[in-house]
């Protein structure tokens, strides 16, 4: 039987591997850390959740294409039994203008730097759910300023 300390350590190690995979831009490495029935929701985007590995992969691929060189600098990690919450600063360079409520904002080459919180549910040593919350207002202001 796994102790709570062992479970917490496993979640911390998974969180570190997950962050490394995202920061390397390696979509295959990111997806290898998810369950087949994973659910992802980007709450700032207002879109419905992506459900299942194929849909989540497509959503993540779109983010990586839209913000090449995306990077998450951790500020705080809170770990519990089968979950973690990561506060970070997300930076990236815009590849194409973003859709902001039907309006295009930003230009290719624009830099963004926003607060990000990920709430991650873990099951069987893999990410089963990822809820991402971005400071969308700050991001939109940065994109409108260019």
Task: Quickly list its features.
146 residues; alpha+beta; Nuclear Transport Factor 2, Chain: A; six-stranded mixed beta sheet; two-stranded antiparallel sheet; 4 helices; 8 strands; 41% strand; globular
Secondary-structure map:
Blueprint: H1 4-24, H2 27-31, E1 34-42, E2 50-51, H3 53-66, E3 71-80, E4 83-93, E5 98-100, E6 103-105, E7 111-123, E8 126-134, H4 136-144
CATH A-level architecture: Roll
The chain-level structural class is: alpha+beta
Lateral strand order in the biggest sheet: 2-1-8-7-4-3
Order of helices and strands: HHEEHEEEEEEH
* Extended strand count: 8
Please identify the top-level CATH class. Answer: Alpha Beta
Q: How many structural domains does the protein architecture include?
A: 1
Q: Distance between the terminal alpha carbons, to the nearest Å?
A: 55 Å
Helical content, roughly?
25-40%
Which assembly state applies to the chains in this document? single chain
Shape type: globular
Average pLDDT figure: 90
Percentage beta strand: 35-45%
Weakly predicted, low-confidence segments? none
**Topology-level CATH name:** Nuclear Transport Factor 2, Chain: A
What do you see in this structure?
With 146 residues, this protein is of the alpha+beta class. It has one domain (4-144): Nuclear Transport Factor 2, Chain: A (Roll). Helices cover 34% and strands 41% of the residues. The chain has 4 helices and 8 strands; from the N terminus they run H-H-E-E-H-E-E-E-E-E-E-H. A 6-stranded mixed sheet has the order 2-1-8-7-4-3, sandwiched between helices.
